[in-house]
Amino acid sequence: MTDFFDFINEQDMSLVTDFYELTMCASYLDNEKLELATFDLLIRNMPNNRSYFLFAGLEQVLLFLKNIRFTDKNIRYLRKQGFSTNFLGYLQNFKFTGDVWALPEGSIAFQNEPLIRITAPIIEAQIVETFLLNTVNLQTMIATKASRIVEAAKGKPVIEFGLRREHGLDAGMKVARCSFIAGCEGTSNVLAGKQYGIPLFGTMAHSFIMSYEKEIDAFRAFTKTFPNKTSLLIDTYDEIGGINNAILIAKELEKLGHKLGGVRLDSGNLAKTSKKIRKLLDNTDLAYVKIFASGDLDEFKITKLNEERAEIDFFGVGTKLGTSADRPYLDVIYKLCEIMHNKGIFSPIMKLSEAKTTFPGRKQVYRFKDGSGNFAYDMIGLDEESLTGESLLIKVMERGELIYNLPSITRIRNYAKASLQKLPAKYKQINTPQKYPVKLSQNLETLTRKLLIKLGKKG
């Protein structure tokens, strides 16, 4: 097993769905409702202190759509749930045959913009809903959170350290992946390092130091094993005593032709302590030794540390990144926007529930830029429109076949970095960022008004 996603694939990921998806599909089949339909996957509301999303998870979505099958074992299980022989026969031969349009992974996106658009027989489009929502929710949420932390660090490296606090094995893998895409320099997750080619980082735990009678003995033991790759944790007992011991070790290493890599602070007043530590290191000709900080960090605390001019070179961020602690979910939805009727014509559809209205028709997202090439505003329009902005949704699957070369994680990371650089700073502020303008095209507004009138008459 190299990735929990592969484990699910082996067990048949087709059952990673809500039960009501299957009951709806059984009724579609029973009533011979097999027409084509289009669904949009989008994020409805912007969470507090967010003005953009960093889209992630497309690779896993496309692999799922390509490989979804119902095994004999799972068909037998579903038979026990009361499904008809006819429906089970349909599932036994199930293959996704639809067309998929999507933003490239690593794209910047905004509220109400389709991230993925699927046109397929309605049963096929319906049955994949849960997996898509689950995948995009987690990975886009974490990628966005990580990008904010990287932004707060202002060029100082950020390492993802959250595996022990993340919500299960699969989440742990995807957090490492999405954090790297968003700009983190590496991870502590060894399996993610192997699977995705992400650089690995780690120092030591307090327990290692506590296992020795004296702190300096622990430091000597560890540097004996790793003379060229050591960061010493200096706050197990007293950070000033710890840094003095670390300085002794650094001088011993120099005599052997090695250099101490860094020291780590994991508690206390990080700004105040880091300044003391930096001064002691510089005064002993150890300016090359880096100061690494960890301990319940996030973008808000890192921003404050930078405002206080903390002498910190690296940030290790775990729990609050890996759980997106200030917003542990996104309002991601998957809504029907058009359906084909008897004459082979697609009819637009919209939802009118209070505070949950959706926009009708097959849509495209158009991005407009200023004279410097930076993002100025987006426009959601109808797919057949010819607007001057850049069309963001690209075709990635046709008739169930993948027609898109899945980029490497490094390419996705570079694309995300370039996209974030084009987003003006006022939209990337950690606290109270400005709202990015997303407009509706005139044609989409007109269609929406017409449909509202039509639906109102029906009511």
| Fraction in beta strands | 15-25%
Give Rg in angstroms. 26 Å
Q: How many DSSP E strands?
A: 19
CATH architecture call of the largest domain? Alpha-Beta Barrel
CATH superfamily of the largest domain: nicotinate phosphoribosyltransferase
Contiguous low-pLDDT stretches (5 residues minimum) are none
Q: What is the number of domains?
A: 2
CATH class descriptor of the largest domain: Alpha Beta
Please tell me the overall pLDDT: 94
Shape type: elongated
How far apart, in Å, are the first and last alpha carbons? Answer: 54 Å
Which structural class fits the helix and strand makeup? alpha/beta
CATH topology of the largest domain: nicotinate phosphoribosyltransferase
Biggest beta sheet attributes: 7 strands, antiparallel
Task: Kindly summarize this structure in a few lines.
By secondary structure, this protein is an alpha/beta fold. 41% of the residues lie in helices and 18% in strands.
Task: Describe it.
The chain contains 17 helices and 19 strands. The chain has two domains: 4-133 and 335-458, Alpha-Beta Barrel (nicotinate phosphoribosyltransferase), CATH 3.20.140; 203-293, Alpha-Beta Barrel (TIM Barrel), CATH 3.20.20.70. The termini are far apart. 41% of the residues lie in helices and 18% in strands. The strands form four sheets. The protein has a seven-stranded antiparallel sheet. A six-stranded parallel sheet has the order 7-6-11-10-9-8. It has a four-stranded mixed sheet with strand order 16-14-15-19. The protein is elongated and about 85 Å long. The protein has 459 residues and is of the alpha/beta class.
